[in-house]
Amino acid sequence: MRDRLYDAARAAAKAVDYVGAGTVEFLADHDGEFFFLEMNTRLQVEHPVTENVTGLDLVGLQLDVATGLPLIGDEPAMHGWSIEARLYAEDPGADWQPQSGTMSGFAVPGVTERFTLTPTRGIRLDSGTEAGDTIGVHYDPMLAKVIATAPTRLEACRLLAKTLQDSVIEGVVTNRDLLVGVLRDPEFLSGEFDTGYFAHHDPADLTRGQQLSAPLAAVVAAVADAAMERSAAVVDADLPSGWRNVVSAPQTRSYRRGDDDEITVSYRFTRDGVVITSPSLDELRIVSASADAVEVQQAGLRTRYRVGRSTVRDDQRVHVQGPDGSLTLDVVPRFVDPSTLATPGSLVAPMPGVVSRVAVSEGDTVTQGQPLLWLEAMKMEHAVLATADGLVTRLVAQGTQVEPGAVLAVVGDE
């Protein structure tokens, strides 16, 4: 079948006298038949895979051919396996909505090559993203291409999954956990899957399966936040947070994962260290804690977690990462400014973007499900629909640049 694909690709290029790098794409069925889809007259984003298994620098060859130099030698033979993951600033669990913000942390471990051929085994990273970079709304939201190469497909999948899981990615929501979930899915590993994969594999479930337990992440976040505050204290900095010489009520901190319920952590500092009173986690003991790292012991196993922080639209987030997964939590403020509360009936932006079209005006009467406006960002357009019947009492103007959570319209009672 591969030989037939090669023959068809050569015939397509020859038919139009094409010279240069190009990619011919086909769709194949389960019977081994295939059908022409399109030809891209350029290198594609997946070209590192071909480079790694052939040992050829396709970018260099493309430039050579463009200057009139011939391709010399026999056709290359492939060796080993290479697989590429496209790390995107998007939320697969929210209809793949693109995300924007500042990358407070970004690091991929174990990289053996950057932008160049990988040997028989290793990780190649093609990326210009660094910690501190701002991910905007005007360009494709790809942060990096992470490519694993190994002698077998299974080993390449395992290497790529472990590398992505251990990567530090803080500040914006990405598809990292989804990629890890797919790379560890038995059906994907078997090779018996097709283009309908996500029709029967919920991205939210695949993502959730790679995430850290929310109660455990909240405990780690609370202890780290307490340590951070004490490290910044200017009075009695040697005393633990909330220290009393008599027993008092536990201290509390609350966190939330997305739209889930709040998780309140109650803890008390004692002579034996930090004691967690809520939530109840079996045999959990805090071994050590600092602003950016917490070590816990549970069921005899010691685990160290990295803790990072970021700010999104004035909301504080804590990123907890360990060998058993990662999770980002929103910090629930102790006191809420009433001026920040949205008006009842508010429709907010689900993603960053520009209001490309507006279908109604203030004062119009609308019905549930009626399109009010459209947001455009990163090659995507998202319709904002009325969630109930009512009167449009507020509406953002066409052409307005908005951030996630910004109020786009208010639909109230007539």
Feature tags:
single chain, 414 residues, alpha+beta, D-amino Acid Aminotransferase, Chain A, domain 1, Glycoprotein, Type 4 Pilin, OB fold (Dihydrolipoamide Acetyltransferase, E2P), 3 domains, eight-stranded antiparallel sheet, four-stranded mixed sheet, 8 helices, ATP-binding
Q: What percent of residues are in strands?
A: 35-45%
Q: Helical content, roughly?
A: 10-25%
- Strand order in the largest sheet: 15-14-13-20-19-18-17-16
The N- and C-terminal alpha carbons lie at a distance of 65 Å
| Residue-averaged pLDDT | 90
- E-strand count: 28
CATH homology superfamily name of the largest domain: ATP-grasp fold, B domain
Please state the overall shape, judged from the principal axes of the Cα atoms. Answer: globular
Q: Can you tell me the number of structural domains?
A: 3
Model regions low in confidence, pLDDT < 50 over at least 5 residues:
none
Task: Give a concise summary.
This protein is α+β, with helices and mostly antiparallel strands. It contains eight helices and 28 strands. This is Biotin/lipoyl-containing protein.
What would you say this structure looks like, in words?
With 414 residues, the chain is an alpha+beta fold. It has three domains: 131 residues, ATP-grasp fold, B domain (D-amino Acid Aminotransferase, Chain A, domain 1); 119 residues, Glycoprotein, Type 4 Pilin, CATH 3.30.700; 71 residues, RNA polymerase II/Efflux pump adaptor protein, barrel-sandwich hybrid domain (OB fold (Dihydrolipoamide Acetyltransferase, E2P), Beta Barrel). The chain has eight helices and 28 strands. A hairpin with a 2-residue loop joins β18 and β19. α4 packs antiparallel against α5. The longest helix has 18 residues. The mean pLDDT is 90. Keywords: ATP-binding, Biotin, Ligase, Nucleotide-binding. This is Biotin/lipoyl-containing protein. It comes from Branchiibius cervicis.
